[in-house]
User: What shape does this take?
Amino acid sequence: MVPYWSEKARRLCISAAAGRTTEEAALRETRADRPHTLLLTHTDYELGCQLLRIPPFMNLTTNANLEAAFGGESMANRKYLFFADVAKKLGNNELAKLFRDTASQETEHAFAHFRLLHPELLIEDPAALNDADKQKMLTRCLELAIEGETYEYTTMYPEFATQARQDRDSTAEAEFNEQIEESQQHANLFRRAASNFGFLVPIEQHHAERYGVALKALEGKGVVSEADQPVAGKWICKVCSMIYDPAIGDPESGISAGTAFEAIPEDWVCPICGTRKANFVPYREAELKEAA
Assistant: This one.
């Protein structure tokens, strides 16, 4: 049975046909009990599966549920590792171990979901794979990594930053007369969130560019390297990849735009991960170079 997909998914399917889908296939009936979904032909369905890299047997609802489950288990892993760090710092090693052990189990759960989402990456017998098969799988891994990082720096974090600024303004205005102090705390929180989301945009772009260079290297076009000269004025955190840009500064930490990295006080810390200034190095862009 052909599943009912969202209008967005249907448009992607139609686009995948690259002009080969007929007008008849593009116009689908709307179910009365599901007014926001459209029925797809088998042609649309197959094209959509190819475009979205979904196994043809999988319903989009199940796919979405697996994505959500993978995200939940992944988040639980990082959350429990954070809790383990808290417990360790507070001297409760037994509780820290419990959190770490559980985090490891959540990772296995996440891997199980991810294998269903991407069966093309399953490896049953590495020795049975030829070089072309290995190349295809590694290429797919880099494609997925580039896709995710690009979405984060082009869409997700810019939208989050905009929303945080809007929330800050509306929250401060709504609570101004009733709870001035709490409103200020909210405003500061949203202001910091907006600032951090802004800092994360170049970080994710940096990640995507590195993956792009790695993909070209995998294709035999060169070797992964860095530019010989650092980008003027920019410094990158060795811990989280936050890129300090003097044109932006770090206003929420009292570092105004136009402040050179060298002029930042030594007690300044990375606004993303909190590491000290000494853990920053001059930023060099990822670069593909000829093999020696």
